[in-house]
Design brief:
- The protein contains eleven helices and eleven strands.
- By secondary structure, it is of the alpha+beta class.
- It has two domains: about 170 residues, no CATH class; about 170 residues, Glutaredoxin.
- α6 runs antiparallel to α7.
Amino acid sequence: MKIRLAAALTLVLTACQGAPAPAGPNSDPAPTKAGEGASAPAPAPAPTVAQPSTPAIEGACAAASLSLAPQTVVARVNGAPVTVESLGVEAAEMEKQALGDYCRQIQKIRDGAVRMAVEEKLLQTAAAAQGLEIDPYLKGQIESRAPEPSDAEVEAYYGANKTPDAPALELVRGQVVAAMMEERQQGAYFALMGELREGASVEMSLPDVRPPALPIDIPAHTPTFGGAEAKVEVVEFSDFECPYCARAGTVVSELKGKFGDRVRFAYRHFPLSFHPNAKPAAEHAQCAQEQGKFWEMHDAIFENQRTLDGEGLKSIAAQAGLDADLLARCLESGRARKQVDEDVAKGTEIGVRGTPSFYINGQPFDANPDQLEAAIAAELAKTAGA
């Protein structure tokens, strides 16, 4: 999130995202209009942590037979037939992609509806235990978990998120506080629901109609943590100059100790073309990987995201404890550049268009990173009996 100067002095949220065309990392972001997005967008529904009671019907939607037979006549020109076969491979691939997107949206809608119904049941039970209705119970829980920020916290938040052309804090203080409160309230709600799920028995039987998992390999040079044989694998495509990636990086760091060897995390690079320092930062991080210090470099880069020029990266590398001579030789060899390019190629192949992009067992995760823990827990529940 960044605070930008807009005509109406409103808070504008940005994402590290390319244009919706399939050009991937070479796409530039759509321009932000002044006054758009006065508040943080509502997060997408989070998957419910549950153990399925019936087998998933994976890919049932995407496997639907909607294609036309190759010899089907779709037009005639002066009596001569035009068949499906003559339409070319590209049209068939586009149809397949469109059907996959549709099926993922169907699953997302169903997941969201079930999640809301389950959460209402959990809230009803918790509220009744205190002799309350849902609304006053929820209001009290959120208020106790999300206090108003202090002046020092507001100033720190503003300083960490403002852009060079941002107005003075006093001109947008109310909007900054509102953004902080929205973040805190969302976080408080997710935390509450996590606690309620842990204390309840929730069984899911919703069929999984998503397309088959995408093939995302983990090359030997890829930084990872967690169990190599884990049944749940999370792959992140990220950009070191993207502020949303910095926030997601904090979330991932917090998850390191929560799942242990049950989950394997992998970090792959996807520097966007409009972030000039993102690729050099990625190459430095890959060289840090050779020294066994990728995650130290990862954290140091995101902590110093505004100083990623040449000298800044040298200073960050020293902060992360890298050997300067080994780093220089690695960068000169071109190995890191090739590894970053391989990551970008893989991301483009599977449809990454913005950062951060997460994939859980090969399925795109398109919700708020704050909901990543719930989504991983849900996947662990699905694989418990596998």
